[in-house]
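Field reference: sequence -> structure
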Amino acid sequence: MRGPRLSDERGIALAVAIFALVVIGLLVAGTFFAGRLEQQSGENAFYANQAAEAAQAALTQAVQTTSAATLLAITPGMTPPAGPSLSLAGHSGATTTIKALTSSVWLVTSIGSKTNASGTQLATRSLAQLVRLNQPEITVKAGLTAIGKVTVSGTSEVYGWDVTPPSWLAGSPAVSCPPLDSVAAVRYNGQVTQQGSAVIKGDPNREQDSTLTASNMLGGSTFNQLKAMATLTLTGNVSGLAPVTVGNPPVCDKTVESNWGAPTDKANACFTYFPIIYHYGDLSISGTGAGQGILLVEGNLNVQGRIDFYGPVIATGGVNIRGTGSDDVKFYGGVMAQDVTLDDTKITGNAMINYSSCAIKRAVQGSATPMALGERSWVQVY
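Structure field:
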């Protein structure tokens, strides 16, 4: 009996076709899988970039908007408080925290995140930056420091006895002041004339310093260096001072030229606002009100009315302070006049200058601005 011929291969085409379809299917599936992986990798990288950008934006915002008073209130060992947060379009945002490493260096950490529409977190990135305070270097050694002629007349008063403004001694927020340390009432290189019922009292009352010049009067900084740090530039004379707030909760409006802080109102949002005020040319201040910070006048300064100011006052020309009638002018901190050769420095009427190390410290620290350490002091944590 003859068996079937081996050349009979009926049905092999179906097997080959099925095998080919399986191989093609695997190739297509592999291609789709690789494409899906690449798409997911791209999306993850995109989400990570969005989270990193949000973190960097929040970090920049925190450094630029956090005040010196906020940083100084954060001490080493203290639980890092929450800083400014940031919400961006596309379900991305960031939160920040600020930690004090030393009394003068802080670590700002920003955590950026990207979520989907339902709130599921898709990516996070964290950046950290070291910051310090860039603050003026001013050394005040007397209630009144002047080069040239100094005239104190009427019922005006110049004191070198250190004093803390009474409104700062109680209540909240607490005001940190250095120990009281009296200085000379008038430190000068020139001539002092005391007339009428004027009072000059200090430790000593008068201190003549033949080495006193315009270049060494301020101590650690020059007038031009301080001018470069100005945060409020006046365009004209000022009539009346008053704090201005906007929004709810209220925020201090730092764009108003007559807003120089709220030195006696701890509940006001401008209580911690200490502008470095600069004016080119002669400046006249009149009316009523109070201000704080550092006042720089590149010219002569004339003050009259009922004006109180807390912090250093520096003028490259003469200073003329006049109380009128029942009104008076009170300066807590120190007044310094440079290059007074033709004009006299005159304190008349009911004017008062009182040295205050507390007012100087608050003005110098409060007017400082946060700045990054080094050219690139931030690092990606994860």
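Note: The longest strand covers residues 121-134.
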